[in-house]
Amino acid sequence: MKAWIVAVGSELLTPFRVDTNSLAITERLNTIGCDVRLKFVVGDDVDELAGIFERGIGKIELIVCTGGLGPTEDDITRDALSRALQVPMHVDEAIVDRIRQRFERRGMTMPDINRRQAMIPRGATVVENPRGTAPGLWVERNGTYIALLPGPPREMTPMLEALIAERLQPLAGGAGLFRRVLKITGRAESDVDARAQPLYNQFLAAPIPIATTILAVMGQIELHLSATAPSRELGEAALDAAAQQLRDLLGPIIYSVDGRPLEAVIGDLLRAKALTISVAESCSGGLLSSRITDVPGSSDYFERGAVCYSNHAKEEWLGVSAELIAAYGAVSEPVATAMAKGIAERSGSDVGIGITGIAGPGGGTPEKPVGTVAIAVRTPAAKQVRTFQFIGGRDMVKFQSAQAAMNMLRLMLLDG
Amino acid sequence: MKAWIVAVGSELLTPFRVDTNSLAITERLNTIGCDVRLKFVVGDDVDELAGIFERGIGKIELIVCTGGLGPTEDDITRDALSRALQVPMHVDEAIVDRIRQRFERRGMTMPDINRRQAMIPRGATVVENPRGTAPGLWVERNGTYIALLPGPPREMTPMLEALIAERLQPLAGGAGLFRRVLKITGRAESDVDARAQPLYNQFLAAPIPIATTILAVMGQIELHLSATAPSRELGEAALDAAAQQLRDLLGPIIYSVDGRPLEAVIGDLLRAKALTISVAESCSGGLLSSRITDVPGSSDYFERGAVCYSNHAKEEWLGVSAELIAAYGAVSEPVATAMAKGIAERSGSDVGIGITGIAGPGGGTPEKPVGTVAIAVRTPAAKQVRTFQFIGGRDMVKFQSAQAAMNMLRLMLLDG
Hints:
2 copies of one chain form a homodimer. Chain A contains 13 helices and 17 strands. The mean pLDDT of chain A is 92. Helices cover 40% and strands 25% of the residues of chain A. Chain A is globular, with a radius of gyration of 26 Å. By secondary structure, chain A is of the alpha/beta class. Chain A has 3 domains: 2-172, Molybdenum Cofactor Biosythetic Enzyme, Chain A; 176-256, Alpha-Beta Plaits (2-Layer Sandwich), CATH 3.30.70.600; 262-415, Maf protein (Alpha-Beta Complex). Chains A and B meet through helix 1, strand 2, strand 11, helix 9 and strand 14 of A and helix 1, strand 2, helix 6, strand 10 and strand 11 of B. Strand 14 of chain A pairs antiparallel with strand 14 (302-308) of chain B.
C-alpha cells in the first residue's frame, strides 16, 4: 500500500514549527508494509487542502491527514474533505453528546462552538478519540482511503493505533517493513561506523536483506536497521539476528536494541539488582533527576536528588567542605567524588552520582573551558570518576552530562 | 509573493528524518514578504517531483526546492525539472571545470559521476555553491520562479542568502511578512479564543492587516500574529500595537510577547527584584529545577533544588514532619506548603516552591487521581497554595506542574 501524509495547520508554515506527527505515522505505516510516497504541509486553507484530497483520490491508496479538527473557524479539515468528496456535512448528535459529557466530567459546559467538531461529511465514519473532543474520520472513495486525525500527538497516537489494527492491517496483508533502532553512547560516530561497516554488506546480501543507516544525535548514536519481509515473524527474526551480530561486534557500547532510552535501561538494571539511587547535580541542574524520574515506577529505586548550584548547598546537603572546593575548584574530580559520596551516604542510597561542571555560556576559563564536566559514580561494588569535555550550547552540555553519568553507571552495573 | 517549498530525499520519508531546511527558508522568505503556502516532502522519485513542478508552474510565484542535486543516480532533481519544463539538458563545461578544480584543490581527481552535477536544463541559470560541488539552478516559466538548492544546510544557506539578495528581494519590493508570538498559560484555549475573538476582525480590517492564529500546546497557548507590511518599521509598529491591545484585553495571563519561555520570564523578574529562589519537587522530579537552570546566568538567582521522592527526604531536607504527611497525605496542600517553607528557610532563599503530586501512571486513588498536584509558592510578600488536576501522561503532568508553579510565581511577583 502507498500513502500520502498531510499535516494541516498554518503554524506549520511558519519558521517556528515542524511537522513531527508524520514521523510517528510513517513508522507505524511502515510496520504494515505501507510506504509513504509524499508528505504535504498545508495551512488552514480549505482550497489548498481540498485540492490535495482531490489530487489524491483515485491515485493513492491511503491519505492520512492530521490537524484542523478543532472547534474554531480555523479548523477546516472537515470542510475540505466534504468539498473534495462533493458531499454535504451533517451534525452527528451522538458525537455532540460525547463531547458534552467530556466537558461535564470536568465540571464545564460545552461551548456551542464545539458542535463544529460533530460535523461529518456524508459517507464518513467516526474514529473515536479517547483523549480529546475532536473525533477522527475515515472514508473511502475511488480506491483511496482517507483518515482524518487530530493534530496533538497524545490524541493522534492511540487513534492511529486503532486505525492500524482495525482498518489498515486487514487491508495490508502480512508483509511489512520492519525496523530496529540500536542506541549507542560514549563513542564517536565515525568510530562506530568504521567498526560496523563490514556487517552492512553482509546484511544487505542476506535472504531477508537489512538496510542500515547510522545517525548521530545529541550525545548518542543510533544504528537504524530496516528489513522488508513477507511477515512480521520473518522480519523480526532477521532483525534479531542482525542486532545480535552488532552486539557481538560492538559489545556493551550498545545500550538499547528496542528503542528504550538510557534512563529506562538503568532503571531496569537498578531494579534487577534491587539498588536504590540518589543523585547530586550542579551543572546539569536537575536534568538527571528529571530524566531518571521520567520512567514510570522510578519511585521504586529513586530516593532523592540534590540540585546544588551554590557551594553552600554542596556543603550543607552533601558534606562537601569549603576547603575541598577551595583546594580543587568546584568543578573538579575530588568535588564530584565528594558529591557522589555525600548524596549516597546521607540519603542511605546504594548508588550515588555527583556531577559538577560548566554548562556555559559564561563561567569558562582557559584551564576549565565551558563544557568541562566532572562526573563521579559510586555503586556498592565500585567507584569511578571522569572528566569530560563536551561541546555545544548550555542545553547540549546539560544533556550530555546526564547521558554520560547514566552510561558510566550502566557500564559499572553490567560489570558486577 | 507566494511560495512552495519542496524537500527532496527518500530519507525524509522515513521515520527518522524531518525536513528542517524549510524552516530556515520560510524565515528568510518571510522577511521579504514572501508567504509559504505549501510544503512538500518527496522521495528520490523523478515522476513525483516532476509532477509537483508541473502543478506549480503558472500557479505559484516561487518554488524553492532543496536536495537531490548530488552526483549519484538517486539525485533526480535536475531531471525532474527538465521533464517538467519539457526542455533537454546539456552539460555545462564551465561547471565541470569548477567542480574539477574543487577536487584538485583537495588533491583529488574528479570522479566521472560528478559530471552529472553540471547538467542544466535549457534556459536555467546557475546559482554558485561556494561550499560544495552541487551548483544550484534558477529558472522562470509562466510567471513561476523555480530555485533548486542543495540539501546540506551549510551549502544551502549561503546560496539562499545570495538568491534573496540578488534575485528575490528586487522582485518583492520592500514589503515583508512580520510575526509575533504571544504566550499564555493557565487558561483554556477556548476561553482565550472567545475573549480575543472581537480583536481578530479588528486586526484584519486595519490599514496593515494582522492575521491571528491560536495554538494550544502542552500546558500553554500561543497566539501567532502576522502582518504583511510595506516595510519592517511599519510591520513591527502594527504588531506592537496589536500585542498591546491583546495585553490590555487579556491582562497578565500573557507571559511573553517575544517568544521567551516561562523560565526566562521568571528569571528576569527574580533578577529585577534581586530575589533568590530554591525549589522542592516531588512529582515533577527535577524538571522545575532543570527548566529554571536552562536559562544562562540562572546561577545568579537559583540557589538549590531538592527532588524528594521519599518521605524521608522530605523530612530530612525540608523539615516536613511524618505527622503532617500522615495527617494529610504526601500529596496535599499542607505538605506542599511545608515543602515551600522548608526549602526557602533552609536554603536562605527569598522564594520557595513546593510541588507534590501523582505523575502516574500508577499511584492514583479515587480521591486523588493521577494528575492531582498541589503547588505552594512563597515570596517575601505573599504565600499561595493551589491544587491542580492535570490531564495526560507522566511527561505532561511533570511539564504542567513545572509550568503552573512558574506561572503562580510570575503572577505573585507581578503583584508586588
